[in-house]
């Protein structure tokens, strides 16, 4: 087992929690996906942190697993349709640059410098040599396209952006800034991202488990600050087209038809793909 406990203090705790949740799908008899890379980041301490966040609220663990399948499916589609560059914003401990490596497809990740340093060290220690460009920094403050262009990204090539587990930590202004940056500087592109609605962020769903879950993230220094429900209005404001939109509830019912959801939060949690205008 890899000893990463000493690194936990140096990397955003939510990255380890989400990685733990994602890894647990590997234990299912019929998993939604396989992620055999993510265990290199995990140990007893990260498992304990994830268990504290999950507590008695299974949805907290299930939702990252459902969204992983959604993003993996969209990524497979984009690559099949000619995508040449994949960008993962706020990537945390995402492993798609390794799991989904493909000929003539370049991967770029943007994340804080401590997380990037950890990923580089863990990949090197485990002999993972797939080419990827890991960019340290704050994409909201510095600008997505500006950061990418400084590291070899070609704005003329068809590109796909994965923005997983980020929007709820931002503001509406920051979300719109990112989307407009892409719209104004790229040709053919798509971006997939997930988002909570206002009721979850404001803790007014009436679901005690959902409220406690949000409070636990806030207690570890990662409060959710932005939620919305009108995706059409947001896409119109950004000048983008909705190619696909659903909820975690719909994904749950599709992938796990025999299970009980047990929380309303699934239907308050959206995921979508927007594309550049035709």
What descriptive keywords fit this protein?
7-stranded mixed beta sheet, alpha/beta, 15% strand, Rossmann fold, 278 residues
Protein model, in words:
With 278 residues, this protein is α/β, with parallel strands linked by helices. The protein has a single domain (5-275), classed as Rossmann fold, CATH 3.40.50. The protein is built from 13 helices and 7 strands. It has helices spanning 5-8, 13-23, 44-54, 58-80, 96-99, 113-125, 139-142, 144-149, 172-185, 198-201, 208-219, 231-238, 248-255, and strands spanning 85-89, 106-111, 133-136, 159-163, 189-196, 241-247, 269-275. Strands 3-2-1-4-5-7-6 form a 7-stranded mixed beta sheet, sandwiched between helices. Helix 9 links the parallel strand 4 (159-163) and strand 5 (189-196). Helix 2 crosses helix 4 (58-80). The longest helix is centred in the N-terminal third of the chain and has 23 residues, at 58-80. The radius of gyration is 18 Å and the shape is globular.
């Amino acid at each position: 087992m890899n000893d990463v406990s000493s690194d936990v203090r140096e990397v955003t705790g939510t990255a380890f929690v989400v990685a733990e949740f994602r890894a647990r799908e590997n234990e299912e008899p019929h998993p939604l996906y396989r992620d055999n890379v993510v265990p290199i980041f995990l140990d007893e301490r990260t498992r304990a942190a994830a268990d504290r966040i999950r507590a008695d609220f299974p949805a907290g663990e299930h939702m990252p697993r459902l969204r992983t399948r959604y993003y993996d499916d969209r990524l497979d589609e984009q690559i099949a349709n000619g995508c040449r560059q994949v960008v993962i914003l706020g990537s945390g401990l995402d492993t798609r640059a390794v799991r989904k490596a493909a000929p003539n497809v370049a991967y770029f990740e943007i994340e804080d410098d401590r997380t990037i340093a950890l990923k580089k060290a863990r990949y090197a220690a485990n002999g993972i040599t797939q080419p990827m460009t890991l960019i340290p920094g704050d994409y909201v403050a510095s600008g997505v396209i500006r950061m990418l262009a400084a590291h070899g990204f070609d704005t003329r090539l068809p590109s796909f952006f994965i923005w997983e587990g980020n929007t709820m930590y931002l503001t509406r202004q920051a979300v719109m800034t990112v989307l407009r940056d892409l719209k104004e500087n790229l040709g053919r592109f798509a971006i997939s991202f997930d988002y909570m609605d206002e009721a979850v962020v404001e803790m007014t769903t009436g679901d005690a488990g959902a409220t406690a879950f949000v409070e636990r993230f806030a207690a570890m220094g990662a409060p959710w600050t932005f939620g919305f429900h009108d995706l059409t209005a947001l896409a119109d404001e950004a000048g983008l087209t909705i190619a696909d939109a659903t909820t975690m509830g719909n994904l749950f019912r599709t992938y796990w038809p025999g299970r009980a959801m047990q929380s309303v939060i699934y239907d308050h949690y959206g995921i979508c793909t927007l594309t550049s205008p035709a």
